[in-house]
User: What shape does this take?
Amino acid sequence: MDTKTHDTILVLDFGAQYSQLIARRIRENQVYSQIVPYTISAEEVAKIAPKGLVFSGGPSSVRTPDSPRPDKALFDLGIPILGICYGLQVLSVMNGGTVERPRQKEYGFAHLDIKQKASLLLSGISEKSQVWMSHGDSVASLPDHFSLSASTENCTYAAVEYPEKGWYGVQFHPEVVHTTEGSRLLANFVLDVCKATADWSMESFIESQIEEIRRTVGDKQVLCGLSGGVDSSVAAALIHKAIGDQLVCVFVNNGLLRKGEADLVLSVFRDNFNIRLQYADAQDQFLSALTGVTDPEQKRKNIGKVFIDVFEQEARAAGEIDFLAQGTLYPDVIESISPSGGPSVTIKSHHNVGGLPEDLRFSLLEPLRELFKDEVRLLGKELGLPDEIVNRHPFPGPGLGVRCVGEVTAERLDTLREVDSIFIEEIKKAGLYGDIWQALACLLPVKSVGVQGDERTYEEVCSLRAVTSEDAMTADWFRFPPDVLQRASSRICNEVQRVNRVLYDVTSKPPGTIEWE
Ligand code: XMP
Assistant: This one.
């Protein structure tokens, strides 16, 4: 992708926790960067003709025989290489150097002692610059022609180079913020060593993606399930820009959406973007599939099953369809790389459309699969999507179904919609929405006694939850200024008829999950 008109840097992923960040940091220099599995062949790389390669870090030890190694022929392509951590060790060992495990692993801050002042890679980096280390093995001896360019107190070969080939290696992690001048180092590699032209932007991403989508789709039809979330919305807007009416979107109202959500999706996509949109109002179908069901997993199963039924019906009504568009992002695609082979690819099927019958199997179109959430938001903005969609908190596929703890009824859903809407409104009023990963409200399956005016009440209890997180794998509860919670609580009790008690959830993840069910 995007290789014809813009220079590309390929990041070979050896399973590092941070390889996504490397690609991002490079893109921040207006140079396109794409992550590929370390198993990519030299032939494939030659076809892409990148200006440079980065070997990422990884959890393996090069001292074990089956540790991941890139194609040897990559070294004959004449392309500059930057090895980071494990990447440095691979670069060294495959060219005749050695790696050993020192007695102590090194983890944390260190400071550079620059030995090679003229190093292109370290140009402009300050003496004693802070770097972040996290490694067990270290390079013990360099291959021929390599020289030492910087050390730290505990690591002799902290930075090494073979400038005639454009090969560089660092033991520390320039991609993380703890390496204070890491961005400068990556810019040096990309712009000065690889001589890549800094002319890439979201706008050029859109242009090249449009070309690519047109080439892939030809005169065929594409179906896209819209959920109202940012990923599917951005994918739909992008594909629509490329192929117009060859795109048909399906929006299923499962009755488990937030207040005003269905109207928002319809007005943005049908009225503003003029996208062909099939709207399936299936609220009753979902509700009857949930009647009497209280087990969380059973709820998800029933919701998933009805979704497939409705989606299948809509797909058939859409006519001859060849492609199914999904807003899959990079973190959804590559979850991990197994040390012995290629990447283990896990695709999250948020709506379980993978369960469609044989005759409705489409080719997948996933134009966002190389981007990260914040880049997708940028792209959505560039495509003219409203803030309300672009900056929305994540929302689970089964929606309010898993937030109505206990039985899901039309009345409880309406109550929950009101509570959720007040909570979110107060968060936005306080200017805190952007600081929170996800905020949500749940109705609990208990009632409590209250007093309103002169009357005793016996009504629903709701729990509010707001968390900060990087990736939803772990999360911490958000520390609200007390007056925000106070306003939300008093409005909820005053304005929502069936609720007389409000709790705030102070559980982190783990042990709690973000959702209640
Ligand atoms: P948990 O509750 O597991 O959630 O901490 C992590 C993230 O995933 C979302 N989530 C779901 N998303 N279908 C989805 O599409 C689901 O069944 C589902 N369950 C949880 C949740 O909102 C959070 O962002």
